[in-house]
Write a structure and sequence with these properties.
The structure holds 2 protein chains of 2 kinds.
Chain A: H1 2-16, H2 22-34, H3 38-51, E1 56-60, E2 66-69, H4 71-81, H5 85-98, H6 102-123, E3 129-134, E4 152-160, E5 165-170, E6 173-174, E7 176-177, E8 182-188, E9 192-202, E10 207-216, H7 221-227, E11 233-239, H8 254-269, E12 272-281, H9 285-298, E13 304-311, E14 313-316, E15 321-324, E16 338-339, H10 340-349, E17 354-361, H11 381-386, E18 389-394, H12 406-417, E19 422-424, H13 425-439, E20 445-448, E21 460-462
Chain B: H1 7-35, H2 49-53, E1 82-96, E2 100-103, E3 106-120, E4 123-136, E5 139-143, E6 149-155, E7 158-169, E8 174-186, E9 188-196, H3 198-201, E10 212-235, E11 243-250, E12 253-268, E13 275-289, E14 292-301, E15 305-314, E16 319-333, E17 338-343, E18 346-353, E19 360-369, E20 376-392, E21 398-414, E22 418-432, E23 438-453
Classes of the chains: A alpha+beta, B mainly beta.
Chain lengths: 464, 455
């Protein structure tokens, strides 16, 4: 004990030998505090307190010079910043007892609020829940990939907590939060993979963080260009409006208009040519089959094939089979109907690199009936192109679609307005899924046509 | 010079000279009172209205630029440059049992000082240069005229120092300082004395006395000396005990006064030729100034109330004054002749003031009010005083030299960049002179000082 006292006194004398006065240490501490050198500032304030331990509005230094001197208060603030709340209160209350000041009072209130919140957090241990509504999600954590040109998305969701939501932070940006916990935040995306962290804090400082993933598609222009060398883009466009069987309702010419428009879009905007675009208007079953046969002979494994069908479809609930109805189909007899299995068999015969079937017909979704939607993680264009694909976009699952197709309207709009050099089928689907769903009773579908050679690639539309 | 005179002329003229010589010695003590006023002066105070308001108990405070004149160690506390100026105005009331004089106020520039502090490894080092008035012999008087005489005189002599100072904060609680002081003087002195109706005064022998008598004297003094002041100031406030102790030593010195004196006496005879008697005197006077140790204490309550005390100890009780006369010549002339009367050549004498205590005590206090716009100090103090004149007992023995007191008051205002202070001192004494007659004097002194806190 005696040694400790001696050491303490020697240290004090050493400090005194610096010649610094209480005001020198105080002013030095203030300078450190301004630049957030908290440890150095605390040391200076403690030294100042050794020489003069009372806060004073006017502390005399020398002559008739007086300075403001609040070392207890400033040390309390340093402790507050270091999260040592008890020490902070101790010094701030000393300061208030010596010389009350607004600044000390303000920090005591801060500390009171923090302590109050901490006390609440001991009672309320329920964490808030986070739910995200938009953009569209592939599963609970993965958003649908976005096109390359989309560099920012708006994340919309809701955070729920019984005690109330204090704040929602998305990737370090505080989101706008409503009284009901609905939140909205802009998220910037880099090209490629993006992690999104949503942090919700309730009033008791319970915090929950959920991570999400979204892919912004890459361009990879040169690689795709090299891959497409020698490959052709074939389009087989079928539009059936007028049926021979009076029992089958005609479609008022809409499919034919759609076919014409699509053909124009494909040949004007994309790398389809008139020579490689086969348009059949109101064809019979044989004509369709003959065309498949021709295509199977023409198309090589470097070529790509887009098949578009607009017309009636049918789903037999007993046999669980889906059909296209050619122009010569009879309602009572299935001889001229085209089974999904026949369609699949034709697709299997065609050796294309990528085949995309777009079917704007009733019950067209039956082609996916036995399988789920593709939920694979997004891949880069190059990878998509390298791998073979056999995919389909359909206007509805197992429902009747309207004559004037909302699906086609958004499909054609998207294809026509696309400015990106490369547009994958999956991107195309993402872009039309929500508007079609919101504006019609149908839910478009996108997925793999099974057992025809899909390897996980994707059909890529290339702008001219 | 007319040394070849006939005997018939010589006899009456010499007789007149001898008579007039006697008259000179009768008249001289009348003006001697004021001759003494620039001999010894051991009240070597520092300057500044702040110190004056606290009755000069300032050695342990000494924390602004006026500290240069008090305690050089004090300037080590100063953190920014300061420039200080001080001047004073003194008015004297003098009453004597036989004579009355009317003194006019005299103004003196007391102090001009500049302190420049620097930081040296987190310690204060301060330099100072100053001009200080140390002894003030100024007066401007005339007696209250009556039918027999009139007298007036003016003295502008001041003894001053030019000082270079340096101080260092050795650590948080010990400051040391030293000053080199070069002493010099400014001004001169002249007095005129007139007597009328001398024949009435000397009615027994009216034919031998003049109708009028005029005496004029002028003096030039050149004082010079060198000495050092060393001081230490200890501050106990780091131990939460707001006491300060000052110890100062002013080194011993011999103050030399090269003095040129001219006395001019005119004896006016209405019915005969006038006679003029001229004295030339050159002398060197030396005054031994003892070393002085000053102890000072200051205690401060909560920054605002300061109580302070100084105690001066003069190290030598026997103080010596020597005269070295040379080239003393006297001439007497009338309208026809000039007689070389006297040439004393070389005279040396020594006078010792013995058994006289010069120690002095000073007490002061300062309270600072702090309204929003600045600081208003109020000050008061009391001190004992020396006086340079002897005080005599019934047997005409000098009995003591501490014979007076003063009370002081002061106030001022301090703003961010400057401070202005004023002070008033009432000083008085009463004594019996060498003729055992009552002599009273009261001085009213006012001081004004300003300090500029330079950024």
């Amino acid at each position: 004990m005696r040694i400790c006292i001696i050491i303490f006194n020697l240290l004090l004398i050493f400090r005194l030998c610096t010649g610094q006065t209480f005001s020198d240490y105080y002013e030095e501490g203030l300078k450190y505090a301004v630049i957030d050198s908290l440890d150095e500032a605390a040391t200076c304030f403690k030294l100042a307190l050794k020489f003069r331990n009372i806060d004073d509005k006017q502390a005399r230094t020398y002559g008739m010079h007086f300075v403001e001197y609040y070392p207890n208060r400033e040390l309390g603030i340093i402790y507050y910043k270091q999260n040592d709340l008890d020490m902070a209160i101790n010094y701030l209350e000393k300061s208030m007892n010596n010389e009350p000041s607004d600044r000390a009072k303000e920090y005591l209130l801060y500390i009171g609020q923090v302590k109050h919140d901490l006390a609440l957090s001991l009672v309320d241990d329920d964490f808030p829940e986070i739910e995200v509504f938009s953009p569209a999600m592939i599963n609970q954590r993965i958003f649908q990939p976005v096109a390359n040109h989309i560099n920012q998305i708006t994340l919309v969701g809701r955070a729920r907590d019984a005690g109330g939501v204090f704040e929602v932070v998305v990737n370090d940006t505080t989101a706008l939060v409503s009284a009901t916990g609905d939140f909205k935040a802009q998220v910037n995306l880099k090209v490629g993979d993006n992690d999104i962290y949503v942090k919700a804090t309730d009033m008791s400082r319970n915090i929950v963080t959920k991570s999400y993933f979204i892919h912004r598609n890459d361009t990879v222009i040169s690689e795709i260009a090299s891959l497409t060398d020698g490959g052709k883009y074939y389009a087989f466009v079928i539009g059936i409006s007028d049926y021979a069987d009076p029992q089958i309702t005609d479609l008022d010419g809409y499919p034919l208009q759609d076919v014409e428009k699509l053909t124009q879009i494909l040949t004007d905007h994309y790398t389809f040519t008139k020579e490689t675009t086969i348009v059949l208007k109101n064809p019979g079953r044989a004509e369709i089959q003959r065309t498949f046969d021709d295509l199977s002979k023409m198309i090589t494994d470097k070529d790509n094939l887009l098949i578009f069908y607009a017309g009636h479809g049918h789903y037999d609930e007993v046999s669980e089979l889906g059909y296209w109805l050619p122009a010569d189909a009879e309602k009572e007899y299935t001889a001229n109907w085209i089974y999904n299995d026949v369609l699949v068999a034709n697709l299997k015969r065609i050796r294309s690199r990528h085949t995309l079937l777009i079917s704007d017909a009733c019950f067209s979704g039956s082609i996916f009936k036995e399988r789920s939607i593709d939920t694979d993680a997004p891949k880069a264009f190059q990878k998509k192109y390298e791998l073979k694909s056999r995919k389909a976009i359909t206007s509805g699952v197992l429902q009747t679609v309207p004559n004037k197709s909302v699906f086609f309207r958004y499909l054609s709009d998207r294809l026509e307005s696309n400015q990106a050099k490369y547009l994958s089928a999956s991107q195309l689907f993402q872009d039309i899924e929500i508007p079609v769903g919101n504006n019609s009773p149908n839910t478009p579908q996108f997925g793999v046509i099974r057992n025809v050679g899909d390897e996980g690639g994707d059909f890529i539309f290339i702008l001219k | 010079m007319h040394y070849c005179m006939t005997f018939s002329i010589w006899i009456p003229f010499v007789k007149r000279v001898l008579l007039l010589s006697g008259l000179f010695f009768i008249i001289t003590p009348v003006v001697a009172q004021f001759m003494h006023r620039h001999d010894f002066d051991l009240d070597l105070y520092g300057k500044g209205a702040r110190a004056m308001g606290m009755a000069y108990a300032f050695n342990a405070v000494a924390d602004d630029a006026t500290a240069l004149s008090w305690n050089p160690a004090g300037i080590a506390q100063i953190k920014k440059p300061e420039l200080a100026f001080s001047s004073s105005l003194k008015d004297t009331e003098y009453r004597h049992a036989s004579y009355e004089y009317d003194f006019r106020p005299v103004h003196t520039v007391d102090f001009l000082g500049f302190v420049y502090p620097i930081k040296l490894k987190k310690k204060n080092l301060a330099f100072g240069i100053s001009y200080q008035n140390k002894m003030n012999f100024k007066f401007n008087y005339e007696n209250l005229p009556n039918e027999y005489s009139s007298q007036h005189g003016k003295n502008t002599i001041t003894v001053n120092t030019a000082s270079l100072s340096c101080a260092y904060s050795f650590n948080r609680f010990i400051n040391v300082g030293i000053s080199y002081n070069r002493w010099f003087s400014l001004g001169n002195k002249s007095e005129t004395y007139e007597l009328n109706y001398l024949k009435k005064i000397f009615w027994r022998e009216p034919e031998n006395y003049p109708d009028e008598y005029i005496y004029m004297r002028t003096e030039n003094h050149k004082y010079s000396a060198n000495n050092l002041t060393a001081a230490i100031l200890i501050d106990f406030s780091p131990w939460h005990f707001p006491l300060r102790y000052a110890l100062k030593y002013d080194s011993k010195m011999w103050l030399t006064n090269d003095n040129d004196f001219t006395g001019h006496k005119e004896y006016i005879f209405y019915n005969d030729a006038d006679t003029t008697w001229i004295n030339f005197l050159q002398s060197v006077n030396k005054y031994e100034y003892p070393g002085i140790i000053t102890n000072g204490l200051a205690f401060r309550f909560r920054d605002y109330l300061t109580i302070t005390c100084d105690f001066d100890i003069h190290l030598f009780h026997d103080n010596i004054e020597t005269w070295d006369f040379a080239h003393t010549k006297s001439y007497v002339t009338d309208d026809k002749r000039t007689i070389y009367v006297d040439s004393s050549g070389y005279i040396e004498s020594t006078f010792i003031y013995s058994y006289i205590a010069f120690n002095q005590i000073r007490l002061g206090l300062e309270y600072v009010f702090h309204p929003e716009f600045g600081f208003i100090p109020v000050r008061a103090g009391w001190k004992t005083n020396h006086d340079e004149l002897h005080t005599y007992d019934e047997n005409k023995n000098a009995i003591k030299r501490v014979s007076a007191h003063s009370i002081n008051f002061g106030t001022g205002i301090t703003l961010k960049h400057f401070s202005i202070d004023i002070a008033y001192e009432a000083f008085w004494f009463q004594r019996r002179d060498e003729n055992y007659e009552i002599e009273k004097r009261t001085d009213h002194a006012f001081a004004l000082s300003a300090i500029w806190y330079i950024k």
